[in-house]
Amino acid sequence: MTSRSPQAPQRSLFARNPYPRQRVSGVQFYEHTIVYERVFGPVPADHVIHHEDGDFANNSPLNLSAVTKAQHLALHSESAA
Ligand SMILES: [Zn+2]
User: How many independent structural domains does the chain possess?
Assistant: First the structure.
């Protein structure tokens, strides 16, 4: 007796994830953030650390500055006039 019931199409749990990102518990720690905080103190609330020369690998304190998220977006926006 052959049962040929059509199998339901396999659905990936993540194929239609309505959320663009999974919420990650805890705070992400970046090396440049650690360097900045060691030199200048805690990063102000709602600020991010920006690499002045655009080189993310250059984590010299002189290359790091705390900017607001809005400022940071503007800094990285090529089309900003
Ligand atoms: Zn930046």
Answer: 1
The model carries a pTM of 0.60
Q: CB of 71 within 8 A of CB of 58?
A: no
Three-class DSSP category at 50 = strand
Give the residues of the chain that fall short of pLDDT 50. 13-15, 17-24, 80
Evaluate whether residue 1 is within a structural domain: no
Ion ligand 1: residues, Cβ under 5 Å: 50
Distance between Cα 50 and ligand 1 center (Å): 4
Would you state the pLDDT for residue 46?
Answer: 92
The answer to whether position 13 is within a domain reads no
Distance, in Å, from the CA atom of 13 to the CA atom of 25, rounded to the nearest integer, reads 20
Domain membership of residue 35 as a residue range: 31-75
Q: Of the candidates 45, 77, 50, 76, which has an alpha carbon nearest to the alpha carbon of residue 63?
A: 50
Residue 68 is assigned to a structural domain of this protein: yes
